[in-house]
Every structure is written in C-alpha cells, then in structure tokens.
Amino acid sequence: MTAPEPPEAPRWQPANDTERALATALARDDRAGFFQVVADADLYLPQRSGSDATGQEQDFVTVALFGQTVLPVFTSIEGLAAAMAGLADAYTVTSYPELCDKWPVPQWRLAVNPGSPIDAYLPVEAVEAAARGELVVPTAGEAIVDAAAEADPAARAAALDPHQALVEAASQADPDGYVDALLDCVVVVPTAREVSDPQPPGPDFPWRPAGPAEDPAIEVFTSAEAFTAAYPEQPGVTMPFVILLTAWPDGHALAVNPGGPAGLVVPADQVHQLLLWATPLGPTPKDPGEPA
User: Which of 56, 81, 112, 256 pairs as cysteine with 264 (C-beta 3.0–4.6 A)?
Assistant: First the structure.
C-alpha cells in the first residue's frame, strides 16, 4: 500500500496592494519595478521593547548573515508578525527616503521581507539605483551566495569546519553556537528524485518529507557521511543551509542530523526564524535614524 502524500502546505499570500505589486514584479523578473515599489512603500521596522524606566527605549532587531549585519524591514504588518514572532514585540513605520537618510551604520545591509517569496538583500543606498534600472540586484539566493563569497576568507579558514563546530556546540549544550554553525553549514537534503539544478529550490523541487502526514519534517544533514549513513541509496542535493531556508516549504518542521549526536528538531512555525537569527547590538532609541 502506498503511503498517503502529506497535505499541501498553505501558500504564501500577499497581505496588501504593495505586496501584490512586488509579487507581480518578481513574476515578470522586473527587478527595477520591484524596487520602485519598495522605494515608494510604507516600510515596517521591527523593534524590541526596552526595559528602561519610561518604557520608551527600543532595541532594533538585526540579522547576522555571513559576517554581515542586516536590518530587516517589511511591507506589511502581517509579514513582520509572521517572520518576527518571538523576536520583536513592536514596530515603527518608516519609508525608504527616511530610512536611507537616517541609516544608522553605513556597513549594515537592508533586508526587505526576509524569509518570504518577495525578499531582497542589498545595501540601502542601492534601492534607488535599482529602481532607476541602473543596477541589477541579485535574487535572494544569489545575494546569499555573494555574501558568503565576500566573507573574510582568512577568518573563515581559521574557524572550525561548520559541521565540526555544530557537533562541538551540541556537545557543550551551546544553542547560540549551534545555530551560528548551522547557518554556515552546507547541508545534504534527501529528495524524492534526482535534481540537476537545486540552488535555490524552485516550485517543483521534489521535497521528501519525513514523519507523519499531519506533522511533516524536512531532514537535512550537515555532513555527507551522516547523509550516506541514513540514506545509502537515496538521492539528495547539497546546498548552503541559508539558501535552503529561503525556499523552505510552509508547514514543515526541520530535522537536523536525525538520529545523530548533533540532532535537532525545529517546529514548522519557527524554521524561518533561523534566517532572522537576531544579534542585538544594544539599546537603540525609537528614532530609526539614531545610532546605538
């Protein structure tokens, strides 16, 4: 008897006219049009409430990706709430001109709708040039690969292999070190059939969910040896874990190295938060333009 297929996860839907326009521009590969929308839209900046006596101080949420600090903004409150659950409890409304004029740290990058199908990662000043068509901004997957390539090669060479760093963090019960190492890992993902072009996964990617149909999980292995031990004859693809996260199917949990000594299970509603691994830089005034 053939096992029933797991139910299809609900698809992402735009929350407002801005997000419908962004989705339409991406579907047409109109990158200039996409950033024209971003440049004119209301932007929602996530924050964390401070603990000062007045309750007015705010701590902005930033993201650490391949040694770069990224500030996320969203084009809807719904998108912010879905992506930042547990990471932010407040927000402020801004715009691209205001954000660009008051950008806190020149070296930071901007992340628009991170973790969603309408995301983009780029220097904040590049939005205006991209909107005029003077600059072709890479897709999310391309940007992540570029960011990895730009990381300090000497520092990365001196660091532990990400898989070994992950195993060490697991043995020391160090959750921060574990997630940091996982975000640096190149993982192997079992698939339902052979895949020739897996980076980043497209809509027809042959995911191979594990577990019960009502609670499916995608398994990833942080070493080829661990994958081969678990699936000696199963096809699979190899890709950076962060690229996999940009295409993660909704409703699916994450199982890292299942059955192994460095295993971890992340519930489906928390997987995308891994891409938004927060790195607080200290309390910041509510005004998004004032540096910490």
Answer: 256
In DSSP terms, 240 is beta-bridged to 186
Four-residue CA torsion sign, 183, 185, 191, 197: positive
Q: Are 51 and 125 in contact (CB under 8 A)?
A: no
Say how many C-beta atoms besides its own lie within 10 A of residue 48's C-beta: 19
What pLDDT was estimated at residue 154? 42
- The C-alpha atoms of residue 95 and residue 110 are separated, in whole angstroms, by 13
How would you list the strands of the sheet with 217-220, edge to edge?
Answer: 217-220, 253-256, 264-266
Q: pLDDT per residue over 195-216, tens digit each?
A: 876 666 777 889 999 999 999 9
The reported pLDDT for the residue numbered 147 is 55
Give the count of alpha carbons within 13 A of 129, CB side only.
9
* Most confidently predicted of 153-157, 178-182, 251-255, 275-279: 251-255
Structural domains in the chain, CATH included, are: 17-150 (3.40.1350.90), 157-272 (3.40.1350)
Contact 210, 255 (CB under 8 A): yes
Token pair listed for 239: 């890709």
Whether this model's pTM surpasses 0.90: no
Q: How many CB atoms lie within 10 A of CB 34?
A: 24
Q: Where are the alpha helices (DSSP H) in 103-174?
A: 126-131, 140-150, 153-158, 162-171
Which of residues 142 and 242 earns the better pLDDT score? 242
The residue with tokens 């084009």 is: 75
Give the span between the Cα atoms of 277 and 61, in whole angstroms.
9
Q: Quick check: 46 and 87 in contact, CB under 8 A?
A: yes
Distance, CA of 116 to CA of 257 (rounded, Å)? 25
Distance between CA atoms of residues 203 and 216, nearest Å: 18
